[in-house]
Design brief:
By secondary structure, the chain is an alpha/beta fold. The chain has one domain. It has 16 helices and 8 strands. The strands form 2 sheets. A 6-stranded mixed beta sheet has the order 6-4-7-2-1-8, covered by helices on one side. Strands 3-5 form a two-stranded antiparallel sheet. Helix 1 crosses helix 8 and helix 15 packs across helix 16. The two termini are 41 Å apart.
């Protein structure tokens, strides 16, 4: 496995999934740099019983300012619901990570540092690589290897005109906070991070060893090659397809190693979707109307939230159609 290929493959998936809390204030929206010759209608579903209505909206977390994704139907829903539910609100995410600080620290302390898992020939080059990246060696060396490599991919990433500030969740969270309505969370951020911590080092260690031995140690560019910035991997095709209401066959992270791909997908998609369907099932027991806004990829594929709801005997009805 070539590490350059892995990082290049991971970036589009990380952009699609990333939902880091930003705490950004509202600003005046200016026209988008991205042309849209259609009226947006991102995919939405309704899950309901006698006294509860749950609207499900697939979202994109990072968008350029002015990118249009709202319409009259969605605005009516936003106005009528009692609560917004995100993957994790800023407040809940901060509390979850603070609560798990001690647990994460114990896991890190118990982990054999990456340098000690490498051969002597690769060990010195690992230190050189981390130091050239500008990251503190002792911290990176102690991190689970998958997270360390993701950090290399995300460090200094240029999102171009896109920003978390204009992503769907950030816009909605500001709007609901301004109206005094609650913003809840469908999951525990710490639990998701823990699942990434537990992806086995063995899935990437052999490839890292090989890449390090073949590296001349002179520059990170020579090691990683042309790892694209977010601006380079974003051609707006996915954003336009989402805004038109298209639902893809599934989210493919493009990871070349099959075992690693399965582990990554299971941690970030399958397991979360199964837990979310259980949360939605239970939430039907509480009367009211809520809007659940989570990443669009969670409504795609054979292990989507919709699939696990169906397994529970629940049918979420699509309430709009894709734009032609």
């Amino acid at each position: 496995m070539n590490l350059r290929r892995l990082l290049a493959a991971l970036l589009p998936g990380l952009l699609a999934l990333a939902s880091l809390p930003q705490g950004l204030g509202a600003q005046e929206t200016r026209p988008s740099v991205v042309a849209q010759d259609y009226d947006p209608a991102p995919a939405m579903w309704r899950l309901a019983d006698e006294d509860t209505t749950i609207y499900l909206l697939g979202t994109v977390h990072i968008l350029p300012e002015g990118f249009r994704w709202r319409n009259a139907q969605l605005d009516r829903i936003i106005a009528e619901v009692d609560e917004l539910v995100l993957e994790s609100s800023d407040e809940d995410a901060d509390a979850s990570m603070a609560h798990l600080d001690g647990k994460f620290l114990k896991l890190l302390e118990a982990r054999t540092p990456t340098s000690q898992q490498l051969s002597p020939a690769a060990r010195s080059k690992w230190r050189r690589l981390v130091e050239l990246s500008g990251q503190p060696f002792e911290i990176v060396d102690q991190m689970p290897l998958m997270l360390a490599l993701m950090g290399f991919g995300m460090t200094g990433m240029d999102y171009g005109p896109s920003s978390y500030e204009w992503g769907v969740e950030s816009v909605l969270e500001r709007e609901f906070a301004a109206s005094g309505r609650p913003v809840g969370s469908i999951e525990d951020t710490g639990r998701v991070m823990m699942s990434l911590y537990r992806i086995s080092d063995d899935l990437v260690l052999a490839g890292l060893e090989q890449d390090l031995i073949g590296w001349d140690g002179r520059s990170t560019d020579m090691f990683f090659g042309e790892v694209p910035d977010a601006a380079d991997v974003t051609d707006w095709e996915l954003e336009h397809a989402w805004a038109r209401g298209e639902v893809q066959d599934g989210l493919d992270f493009g990871i070349p190693d099959a075992k690693l791909a399965r582990a990554f997908h299971r941690a970030l998609m399958t397991n979360r979707n199964r837990r979310w369907s259980a949360w939605l099932d239970e939430r039907l027991d509480s009367p009211g109307k809520i809007l659940v806004a989570v990443g669009a990829g969670h409504f795609e594929g054979e292990d989507s939230v919709l699939h696990f709801l169906s397994e529970r005997g629940l049918q979420a009805e699509r309430i709009n159609t894709p734009v032609k």
